[in-house]
Amino acid sequence: MPRNGFFNKNKNNKKLEMGKANRFLIKAFLVLLLGLMLVSLMVTLDKIFALASPPKVVDLSPEKGADDVLLNSPLIIKLNKPIKRQEVRLSISPEVYGEWKFKNPLIKNHLFKTLTFTPVVNLEPETLYLVSIENIKGFGLDKASAYEFTFKTQPSTETVLLEGKDQEEIISPGTEITEPALAEPAPAEPAPAEPVPAEPAPEVTMLKISLDWQDYPLSCEAASLKMALEGKGVSVSEDEIMERIGCDLSPRRDSLWGDPYKVYVGDIEGKVCKTGYGVYWQPVAQAANYWREAQAFSDWSLEKIITEIKLGNPVILWGIVPTGSLTDCSWYTPEGKYVKAFKEMHARLGIGFVGLPESPSRIILNDPWVGRLYWEIPYFLKNWAVFDYSGVVIR
Fold first, then answer.
1. Model's pTM, two decimal places?
2. Which of 13, 162, 223, 350 could cross-link with 315 by S-S, CB 3.0 to 4.6 Å?
3. What's the Cα-to-Cα distance from 320 to each of 323, 348, 361, rounded to whole Å?
């Protein structure tokens, strides 16, 4: 064989071997790449399914099935991701008087991952309680789940009214901190339960009016009236109520704006005190009179509220959201009338009280923004005083 033929054949063999090696490496690379893509796809799908699935309970206090729970023990329920607070349904059976709160937000006042319940009156001794959390929804697909657990309280023979609990903590979006107001500092979580001195159980008077969340950012007045009318057997929507109240959509021009003593001022979905505000008691009473007898008032007393509740009449009350500040945004109407206004203005529905009628220790409020509240009387009176003890009683 010619010498150059041998070398050519050898070169060809080497090329074939190199080609096979390259093809092997390419195949190996493609297999590796495909594997990485599959892993990435699985991780992505897992995240998608996680977002699409409802939030899950990941921690409880007291533990599920606990059988020696203190009578003043708070409940703490932690979830793996934020919950839609306005859609979840919470209940405890037998019924317990106390406040549910949403805590541990991912961003300020939004996307809460923790539920707490603080009893206002001690739990019953040696009693099995069932806690139900229904319609649990996250912010992915519109799927819902439910969760329930039981616990049993320790032996005892007395119940007491718990004092000194934190007041409302949720604040309205966009509130500015300018000067001291009526808020009180509160712990991030309910304090651990401790044994308390025994006293007679307090009397609780409460109208059977369900809590209803407001439909719009600035519709607390309409939402409060809606709840009050529901309590009187009249079912209406916030939109129907707003049609009766009327609305002045004229933009604010420096210190000139509309008259909340006549109509709703601004955009119900606007930015408070800039493009939207609210309405005061007279127009709300006029609207309510279309369905039921209603009376607007100012300079009322606590005794008058208690009397109306005893008669079965809910009372809409104007106060403020306790933010740690009170931001004056008052203005004049085009006619020259002065309108006292605060960025923290808020309306709630009075539905009950704790204690004897002549000396109640707390007032029970349905707040369409944060839930049911049990406010100590001195704190409530300071809050109510900001708008001159004003409101509307629905009879």
1. 0.75
2. 350
3. 8, 9, 20
pLDDT for the residue 32: 79
- Amino acid present at 172: S
ω before 105 within 30° of 0 (cis)? no
On the question of pLDDT at 340 being above 70, the answer is yes
CB atoms within 10 A of CB 377: 16
Give the 3-state secondary structure of residue 318: strand
Strands (E), 279-381: 294-297, 315-320, 331-332, 338-339, 345-356, 359-367, 371-376
Complete DSSP assignment for 103-166? EEEEETTEEEEEEEEEESBPPPTT-EEEEEEEEEE-SSSS-EEEEEEEEEBPP-S---B--S--
d(CA 186, CA 166): 5
Tell me which amino acid residue 12 is.
N
Residue 53's SS3 state is: coil
As given in the structure block, the two tokens for residue 377 are 């009387």
- What's the pLDDT tens digit per position in 271-318? 999 999 999 999 999 999 999 999 999 999 999 999 999 999 999 999
Structural domains in the chain, sorted by start: 57-152 (2.60.40.3710), 204-394 (3.90.70.10)
Contact present, 318 and 220 (Cβ < 8 Å) = no
**How far apart are the C-alpha atoms of 240 and 253, rounded to whole Å?**
29
Distance CA 78, CA 57 (A): 6
d(CA 256, CA 259): 10
